[in-house]
Amino acid sequence: MGIRGNLFARLLTQNPYAELVAFSEINSQVSEKASRTWKVKAYSRFEDMLEKEDLDAVIITTPDFAHYKPVMRSLERGLHIMVEKPFTQSLEEAETMFKKSIEVGSKCLVAFENRWNPAVVQAKNQIERGEIGNILTFNGLLSNQVFVPTQMLSWASRSTCGWFLLSHLLDLVYFLSGKFPESVYATGSKRFLKSLGVDTYDYIHVVVKYKDGSDGIFESVWCLPNSFPNVFDFKLSIYGDKGFLHINSAHQMLDLAAGSYRYPSSLVVDYGHKLIGFPGFMLDDFIDSIRLDREPLASFKDGLLNTRLLAAVHRSLESGKEEVIMGGDS
């Protein structure tokens, strides 16, 4: 029940087809606060919650490295699942979770929330209309202020800006183009954050080659200065043989200059009685996939492909060589 857990708890209370009935949180202070806020049963062990509550679906918001056990236990009980991205940091775990989801037949969504970002949706519409023709190449970045790995995430040393950020960016390229990655070459460095006591990559640069012969260059940096106007910087350029698209989601149509210069969010807006924005669009779509019996927009298969690609990125960081994507487009 950290940032994301409380976000989705609030969004659940806004949906007319869903009811928040319980949550699990291992930190007792956090649990007590969340229990007062949401007025539902709290459990210290997710296993007990799954055993004792009459549930239809679960939302898993554990850290990047801790998705496997709650996903598998939930699938064993036949529950529908929404799980945070990245799907998992382990290729073996990803394969197992995907196969189990097929066996059980649950509706399973990986929270690649930018698939519901209005700018991305419009870009996909333009691509499908043929506005930019055949896609030739991509150039993208998704980065965070140093605040994120040093203060916001207590577990940053157990993840990377690759798992935490590139997972979004690389999924978007697949979502927008349908191109399957074939191989990757990645470079990165562990210096600045390590000097601050966080043993992870300061940045990761990636070249992805796709099966149709096209490629893309992507980067994530986890040490933007905290003076940057937004906690994240997100830009994606898509070049076609007839045109060009550029997404800039960091600047959200609003500038504020007061104690500091910043871009307040206009894509996720708190109206007091209701939170409006693409995380809510995603959650509503997950619930609709259950009640209307349709496939989620970002499935476990998409999560598996994303993990295969990111696993190759991290192998390349270690080997210093180009690495082939394991599993291909199967």
From TrEMBL:
<dbReference type="InterPro" id="IPR036291">
    <property type="entry name" value="NAD(P)-bd_dom_sf"/>
</dbReference>
<feature type="domain" description="Gfo/Idh/MocA-like oxidoreductase C-terminal">
    <location>
        <begin position="124"/>
        <end position="321"/>
    </location>
</feature>
<dbReference type="InterPro" id="IPR000683">
    <property type="entry name" value="Gfo/Idh/MocA-like_OxRdtase_N"/>
</dbReference>
<dbReference type="Pfam" id="PF01408">
    <property type="entry name" value="GFO_IDH_MocA"/>
</dbReference>
<dbReference type="InterPro" id="IPR004104">
    <property type="entry name" value="Gfo/Idh/MocA-like_OxRdtase_C"/>
</dbReference>
<dbReference type="Pfam" id="PF02894">
    <property type="entry name" value="GFO_IDH_MocA_C"/>
</dbReference>
<feature type="domain" description="Gfo/Idh/MocA-like oxidoreductase N-terminal">
    <location>
        <begin position="6"/>
        <end position="111"/>
    </location>
</feature>
<dbReference type="InterPro" id="IPR051450">
    <property type="entry name" value="Gfo/Idh/MocA_Oxidoreductases"/>
</dbReference>
<protein>
    <submittedName>
        <fullName>Gfo/Idh/MocA family oxidoreductase</fullName>
    </submittedName>
</protein>
